[in-house]
Amino acid sequence: MSQRGGYLLRKVGWALVTLAVVITLNFLLFRILPGDPATAGVRDPRLNQAAIEDLRARFGLDKPVILNLEGGNPFDTQFTAYLAALARGDLGTSFAYRDRDVSELLGEALVNTLWLILPAEFFAIVFGVALGLFAAWRRGRTADVASVTFSLFMWALPIFFLGIILLIAGVTWFDLPVAGRLTIGAEYASLADLAWDVGRHLLLPTLTLGLALLGEYMLIMRSSVLEIFGEDYILTARAKGLSTYRIIRHHALRNAMLPMVTLIALTLGFTVAGAIQVEAVFSWPGLGSLTVNAVSDRDYPVLQGAFLLLAVSVIVANLAAEVVYGWLDPRVVED
Amino acid sequence: MRRSRIFPIIGAIGLALAACTTPQSSPSGGGGSSAEPSGGGTATGGTVKIGLPGYPDYLNPGLAVLAESYTIYELVYDTPITVTATGEFVPKLATEWSVSEDGLTWTVVLRDDATFHDGEPLDATDVAFSIELYRDTVFPLLTSYAEPFVDVTVVDETTIELTTVDPMSQPLFEGNLAAIYVLPEHIWASEDPLEFENAEMIGSGPFTLVEAQQGEFVQLATNPEYWGTVAAIDGVIFQTITNADARITALTNSQVDALTEFPATAISTLENAEDIVVNTAETPGGQLRDIFFNVTTAENCPTAEETGGAAGVCSGHPALKDVAVRRALAHATDKEQLIQVATLGTGSQGLSLVTRSHGDFFASEIEDYAFDIDEANRLLDDAGYEDTNGDGVRECLPDQDCDDLTFRLNFPDDSDTAPREADQLGDTWSQIGVAVQIQGFEARALTALCCPGFDYDIMIWSWYTDIDAGGLLAVATCEEIPSGFNETGYCNPEYDTLNDEQAVELDRDTRIAQIHELQQILIDDVVYIVPYYFVSIQAWRTDTFTGWIEGTPTIGLEDPTQLVVLRPNE
Fold first, then answer.
1. Which of A167, B24, B508, B525 has most Cβ atoms within 10 angstroms of its Cβ?
2. Tens digits of per-residue pLDDT, B340-366?
3. What is the model's pLDDT at position B15?
4. Which residues between 201 and 240 in chain B have a beta carbon less than 8 angstroms from any beta carbon of chain A?
5. Closest Cα of chain B to A77: distance in Å?
6. With the C-alpha atoms ordered A208, A209, A213, A214, is the resulting torsion angle positive or negative?
7. Does the pLDDT value for residue B552 go beyond 70?
8. What is the ipTM of this complex?
9. B459 contact A CB<8A
10. Is B241's CB within 8 Å of A179's CB?
């Protein structure tokens, strides 16, 4: 087997082990918390004991959690039921949205979240990298100070606060919508109309998330480029009389991107789980909102599903980062 | 977070101000409501947009617990009886009802001109089917309204007879029927009521469902075939805007026409904005803030067998079982300050488990514990609680198994104002030598501590009350201790007997007297301190639509009465 093949296999193997641990912890975590999903904090004179018992039985919550020690089949438990269903790709049915499959709920929310985070990530990566490069190139000058200050400000600003400021400004001055993905009940004459409507709704949340991510990307990119600029081979390139553009393009960029790849992979993995605060401000029905609601409803199946999705996306993003690493810096594969 | 603003049905039926209450009511009328629309005109059309903090949890009426769901049901479905803004029960699908001599059989006459949205006629069989469906299915809330009707008989196309085992007071009967959303038998008969999604929502109400997007919006259209007043608007959109600031911004920028819920801090902003009216009033039934004490004793601490789960912990502070201590705490509670802290002055001063919106049932003659630190100190001095070690906290009595009057004070952390209320209580209570350890819990964790676990000393929480004044009084009965519905462990046979009597009392005046007496007992024994009743705050734009109803004792601008009289502003 080639060196690269072995490297990949090792990485995939570890990713699978991580996943198995996550699945188990995922199951146990929610069940050691206090509270009962059947009653879910309902303070209502009309919810009687029989109704509660019925809810428990319907969701299988009357079974033992891990091992059945009270006679009968020792594996007739909530955990084995969970594993068996997972193997079939069945994430169960939501407690809170009783008529919905978890996979279906997660799928819809994931699509909405991707709508939001992909443009935001794209915006943040392009402008963050460009601004970082630019600031490093103009190091110490006004442009550098200005972009560092701007990025630090964006990075430090709580994202929900940035969101509310942008929301009030965008709605008041530019008549952008406060919430939603499309105008409710609208009929579109053409694809362009639809695209325009989508764009208007996406602008504020995307800008919020994009700006928040941009600050971090820019700062890391800048320091990474500056570090590379101090390397001997850059001095050599300069001595050869290469233009700044050629130095950046052919010598600095690829090396400077290494820490960026880690950072982007990490944030991408986590933002898949939902840009929770942005979703909350803009009433965006994505994974973040779904997860937050599931937490307050103690909706185990949705939470397990969401956490599994989060774990998978982080693991996959890391795996992707390792692969890109191997391509950017072949030495990694040889180690 | 949506949390779970659990909305008992009682509140829901309360919001159902009568759309068109009698066949004779005038076309522009607000049914039984005495209030007149604030504007007028003959224009029609336009879709009203209302911003909501949440989204309906189910389109299937049996399954829902959230307020947003009942808002939709009230518009899409009809009930046999409904309740007005002034708390009166009035006809809706039923035109008249009466009870037999023995008080056990109710005869209900229904109107003959109602049809479902799919064109099928609505008759007595649908009403009977619905009552039986709610009764025989284990739904979280609605089942309890149909349960008393052990026998449901269709007499003819417009008459049904309902039989109960025990006599039922008239308001209780009417309240039960106000919660029966009549479902079409031809659709529901072949479905499993617990699994049915009800995506089409075929009802007979003044609005029909156009589209519902989970977590985003519900769009309704005016039902032009409605038997009652047909709305002048084209329809209504309920848009979910979770963030409060975003909701306010949406209203000030005309992206929505009305808001049903927003923080009191925004009142002044909106009152100063152009073309916006802010309206505050109690909701029917109402919601109250309660501070309650763990008074469980070793004798009535629930066993595992009784609770059907874990046995009660019953770790309540021994000194709280002494009524003198509870009275002192009541005297040291500054209700006005709490109203300021929690509601910016919008709340109304509380008394007990019956609210002002219950009208005559509210015992206004009872004298509450005045805020009086000296009196509170005197009560504790007389009872023998002294601060012997000079640490500022009074010591327990020798026969009590505790060191001093330091109490755990817990509250649900989904309440924005509870932490400040707890601080405020700790502040005034410290002036009488009482210390508190303040801690908030997530609502489910708090439930686990509360009841029937009884693993706490004092809690701050809130209740939605029933539209019927007697609805919440059962929380103080002995038999509800194992279920955890009784959250204090208070047990007083005299109270229980009186509560049983009022539940079946047919004479209104007698029942009023009984319910006043129950409130007096609760005040005397200080099981609860009720600092205030919540009011609802709503706001709307006057430049887009006119006809908003103001000046009613209770409000619900998303209810049918309101929506049928709205007209676009030209």
1. A167
2. 988 888 888 999 999 888 888 999 999
3. 33
4. 210-211, 213-217, 219, 237, 239-240
5. 18
6. negative
7. no
8. 0.74
9. no
10. yes
